[in-house]
Amino acid sequence: MHKIFFGLVAILGLGGLPVSATTLYQSATMGTSGQTSGALVSANQFLGAAFTLTNAAQITAVGGHISRDGDIADGSLFAAIVSLSGSLPTGAPFDSSLITETTFTAPVTSEDIVVPLSVTLSPGTYALVFGSGLFGATGSGAMTTNNTDLPGATYFFCDGVDHNVWCPGSATCPPGNISNTRFTVYGELVPEPGSFGLMAIGVLTLLAVKARARMRT
Length: 217
Hints:
The protein has 217 residues and is of the alpha+beta class. The chain contains 2 helices and 14 strands. It has helices at 2-13, 195-216, and strands at 22-26, 28-29, 39-41, 45-53, 57-68, 76-83, 98-105, 111-121, 124-131, 141-143, 148-149, 155-159, 165-168, 183-189. Strands 1, 3, 5, 8, 10 and 14 form a 6-stranded antiparallel β-sheet that branches. Strands 7-6-9-4-12-13 form a 6-stranded antiparallel β-sheet, with no helix packed on it. Helix 1 (2-13) packs antiparallel against helix 2. The protein is globular. Mean pLDDT is 82; it is low at 1-19 and 195-203.
């Protein structure tokens, strides 16, 4: 019985152990790094991609294949996560759908960057957006377009020059089609309530069966 009790404690304790983050979403597979051009990211143009979570998740980082604008020394940009109730973000540029944001400095030549960002998200559809001119970011960058889109990749952008209009990546408004840009979201799925308890019951049952088998022998 003592062995069974300690086995239960050990199983329940696993819930608090840190684990390495996994890739929860990527819009495209990585192209060749070291690029200096791509779709503009600036105060006048935000780029974003939609992603869907079927389970709650603890987000630990976001990223993408990006570089700073070579003509501008300042490479500070922001990364924001917003909730989507439709196919596009809303607001000028964001409204209450903004969940969290952070700033980072884009590399001189393109890299597959990882930016720490911690937030718990419920199941639903969200957008990861890169831009500048907000949250202390004042630089300019570019998202390389030499990546390979994965099935279902959905992009959009905000044309800040044209009254903060949000447009789909295949839009008729400038800059037109956006594709083959890499957005990434990292983290871990959050176990559903009661899952650890159910797992513990299963382990207890197995241990009890083994204990009875030993007693018979």
